Amino acid sequence: MIEWEKFTWVEIKDSLPRIKAVILPVGSIEQHGPHLPLACDSLGAYKLSKEVAEKLNGEVLVLPPIFYGVSEHHMDFPGTITVRSETLISIIYDIAESIKRTGISKLIIINGHGGNIPALSIAIRKIQTDLGITVVLINPWELISDVIQEVIESDVWGHACEFETSLALIEMPELVRKDLSLIHI
User: Fold this and answer.
1) Hey, which of 13, 20, 25, 32 would disulfide with 40, CB 3.0 to 4.6 Å?
2) In 10 A of CB 11, how many CB atoms?
3) pTM passes above 0.85
């Protein structure tokens, strides 16, 4: 078991000696074209977080994801839900303060939404300065941008593009509306 919310408080207490860090998946609820779900970024970050934790044999747990992100730029699309940067910073900070009080001093943020990066960067600096917690931000697409450029066939790389659609087809195929895709699948 790797998902924080599935433990009891006693199980967390007993696990503390072996927990080296926790992962916090962060995403967004926003439009991803007519073919991908609103939670595409959140679900992808959560899935990746769980896959990473599984490989670390119980030394890393996954916190419940933050599904909401900074998505003001998508508010013209029905279904998008945005939070202010200050709200996201506060939520991340409060979570970090809680894990510190639990006895955990390392936080890994796996971010699924580019619009969150400025707020997450501020939150990280504040957490490190105020709380003394080690925090790492991972924007997965940045780690493999060279591979993405090598394998994508379309000229478009970005939001709800061939790359995001391909990921969704692997991570959440049942949620991809193949008949509505702008990209021929």
Assistant:
1) 32
2) 10
3) yes
